[in-house]
Please model this.
Amino acid sequence: MPAYPGVIVSMTPELPDEPTIEQVEAWLELAELCQDDTFRASMRRTAQQYAADHDVPGLPRPDAVAVVRDAVAPALAAGLDPTSPDADPVVAAVSNRYMSLHGHCDEADLRRRLLDRLIPANDPRRDRYLDLLAVLNGWSTGDATAPAVDWFIRALRHRMPEPVG
Model:
């Protein structure tokens, strides 16, 4: 897996020299969260997929989660049902954006690849990890991606053909 120093640094928690009580509490919760083998495996898989999607020449590009988060936010705010026909344009927009960023032209393969990227990222523990990391680093919190990712997974699965056999 190629190294992405900026990602590695931004995703690695480090307790400040003089932490606040809130930072110590975040540090302890992070330590507990990282004891979960399934969580660590999921985060590792997500990082490997991110690296695979970005192991192409050119400018940095958003990953599948960022594409989904940005496109699905208005649908979530509007309370749009992911299985309704009104969600078709959102699915098409995400698919087209991801396709243009990563050069996939086979729609069935693209949808499988998106699911492969989104399912491990659809973990509320991932959002919690990022919130705790933000507390440690003094960043803003509350940009949960799980609701948008969950919405899009349901929308995408609803539009995929049933397996034969």
